[in-house]
Amino acid sequence: MNNKAEDPNLWNDATEAQKLMRERQQLDDSIAGVKRLEQQLNDNIELIEMGEEEGDESVVKDAEDALKTLKAESDRQQVEAMLSGEADGNDTYVEVHSGAGGTESQDWANMLLRMYTRWAERSGYKVEILEMHDGEEAGIKSATILIKGHNAYGWMKTESGVHRLVRISPYDSNARRHTSFSSVWVYPVVDDSINIDINESDCRIDTFRASGAGGQHINTTDSAVRITHIPTGIVVSCQQERSQHKNKAKAWEMLRARMYEAELKKREEAANAEAASKTEIGWGHQIRSYVLQPYQMVKDLRTGVESSAPDDVLNGDLNPFMEAALAHRISGKADAGIDDVD
């Protein structure tokens, strides 16, 4: 790859050159990450040996804590190495929609939005809110965020599906236990190298006033834009900008991304429908339960991974679930003999 990068004719094809340079940078980063882990491992092992020789328990404990952090980083890098799908390296859109149940499910949708925002920030990603529709009393009816950073879609892609919450309702004066459902949809940002043709005559464009909590987030003009792709029923909307023109441009980007994600899914299912039914949990299917009462447990229904600390999970500690779902998904495709096309 270094020989190709140093070829004086490389930039005759700018698109191919940029792709090669991105791959080279990713490989350099991966190698540097492994070397850094190896150095830190050796350093902390030496610290433990020194602490034990000198009888300094604090040094030993600090080094052991550092090794635990190192283990988590190593696990993350292992998953990063598995993210080789066509769009895995891209930024990603995440939509959250409340289910039936009014205030309960709208509050749950807001909790999910906060959970993914916290996870993204802890992972070093940037988050932009593109649109949000508030609930009547609390929470949100729906929201779309953009998570920006390398492998954002690769990490998030297994989160699409229905998420179930069981808890004592803070909105029930009789303190009864309620079950709420919200749906999550994840799809990759489409870069300029991917051509997605959409016939504008197949789309309906609506404008409306942006909704929000007030202040700078509220708009007095019809600047928010909603685009409906009539043949597929796909709907996207954006109210991030004050300019209707900018919101329309962003909505078109989101629609292209949704169409691209749908095509990736179609290709995968066509490759092996039986494997897809075993390894894919799509829209409308429950993937994870979050139980706060009568006991505390978060369980992924695809992989069996559990956590007895739902507060940590709801604060963004999602990596164990994501890692297991990605490994499950990839191993399922490997057993079926198909490539990871998305």
Describe the 3D structure.
With 342 residues, the protein is an alpha+beta fold. It has two domains: 81 residues; 245 residues, Alpha-Beta Plaits (2-Layer Sandwich). The protein contains nine helices and eleven strands. The strands form two sheets. An eight-stranded mixed sheet has the order 2-3-1-5-4-9-10-11. It is flat, with a radius of gyration of 23 Å. It is found in: Cytoplasm. InterPro entries: PCRF, Pep_chain_release_fac_I, Pep_chain_release_fac_I_sf, PrfB. This is Peptide chain release factor 2.
Secondary structure tally, helices: 9
Give the ordered list of helices and strands: HHHEHEEHEEEEEHHEEEHH
The radius of gyration over CA amounts to 23 Å
CATH architecture of the largest domain: 2-Layer Sandwich
Overall SS class? alpha+beta
Question: What is the mean predicted local confidence, pLDDT?
Answer: 82
Describe the structure using short key phrases.
342 residues, alpha+beta, Alpha-Beta Plaits, 8-stranded mixed β-sheet, 3-stranded antiparallel β-sheet, 11 strands, 22% strand, Peptide chain release factor 2, translation release factor activity, codon specific, PrfB, protein biosynthesis, Pep_chain_release_fac_I
